[in-house]
Amino acid sequence: MKFDSLITRFPEWLPYIATLYYIDFFFILPRAIFILGKPVATLGIIIFTILWTIHSIALYYKKETNRKIHLVVINIDFALRFPFVINLIFFNKNQILWYDAFFFMLNIITLITALFTIYMLTDKRVKANYS
C-alpha cells in the first residue's frame, strides 16, 4: 500500500530530485574553464542551466519526452560518476581532503537517487502519469 502511494507521488517529486544535478554544473565548471577558457565555459554553463531549468519545469508538467530525456541524462551521469566513487574508495592512497569527502558524499547521494529514479521512471504505473 505504501509503495503504491510512492509510485503515484513520484512524478511530483521528480522535478525536485532533478535539481540535484545543478550541483554538477558547479562541479564541471572548474574543469571546463581549464579546458575551454573562462568565456566559453561560462557561456556553456549558463546555457546548460537554462536548458536544465526548462527540463525541470517540463518534468513538473509530466511531459513524456522529458521523462525519456531524464532517463538518458541520469544513465550517462551514473556512468560518469561511478568511476569517481570507485577511485576514491579503492585507489586513493593520500589523505582525503574536505572537498574530496564532500564530492564523494554528493556522488553517493546522486548515485542512489539515480538508481531509484531509473527504477521509478521505468515502472509502468509511473509511465502512465506522463503524457
* Biggest β-sheet description: none
Low-pLDDT runs: none
Rg computed from alpha carbons, rounded to a whole number of angstroms: 17 Å
Look at the structure and give the mean pLDDT. Answer: 86
Name the beta content range: under 5%
Q: In whole angstroms, how far apart are the ends?
A: 25 Å
Q: Label the structural class.
A: mainly alpha
Count every helix, treating DSSP H or I runs of 4 or more residues as helices: 6
Order of helices and strands: HHHHHH
Query: Which shape, going by the Cα principal axes?
Result: flat
What does this structure look like?
There is one protein chain. The chain has 131 residues and is mainly alpha-helical. It has one domain (2-127). 84% of the residues lie in helices and 0% in strands. The protein is flat, with a radius of gyration of 17 Å. The two termini are 25 Å apart.
Keywords for this entry:
single chain; 131 residues; mainly alpha; flat
Structure summary:
By secondary structure, the protein is an all-alpha fold. It has helices at residues 2-18, 22-36, 38-60, 64-90, 98-121, 124-127.
Chart the SSEs and their pairings.
Layout: H1 2-18, H2 22-36, H3 38-60, H4 64-90, H5 98-121, H6 124-127
Helix pairs in contact: 1-3, 1-5, 2-3, 3-4, 4-5
